[in-house]
Specification:
The protein contains four helices and no strands. It is an all-alpha fold and 78 residues long. Helix 3 runs antiparallel to helix 4.
Length: 78
């Protein structure tokens, strides 16, 4: 049997994280989340930011501009 992280409102892809948090450091500072939950949110957020950057490079636009460096700094703090 595979252990699964607890279901939480933030257990959905990065869009939910961006909706709940304005900045990556807001995730780090949220005392209601475990370190695992924070890392999951920030990792998904970083993946989304990378995908947006790739899409932009291919001439596709849209979506909000994610600051990948800020997300990575927040991940480094965990």
């Amino acid at each position: 049997m595979i252990d699964r992280l607890p279901q939480t409102p933030i257990d959905t892809p990065g869009n939910a994280a961006r909706g709940a948090y304005g900045h990556p450091m807001d995730v780090v500072g949220d005392t209601g989340l475990t370190k695992v939950e924070k890392r999951r949110i920030l990792t998904e957020w970083a993946q989304d930011a990378r995908a947006l950057k790739r899409a932009s490079g291919e001439g596709m636009s849209g979506g909000e501009n994610a600051n990948l460096a800020e997300i990575e700094r927040a991940l480094d703090l965990l």
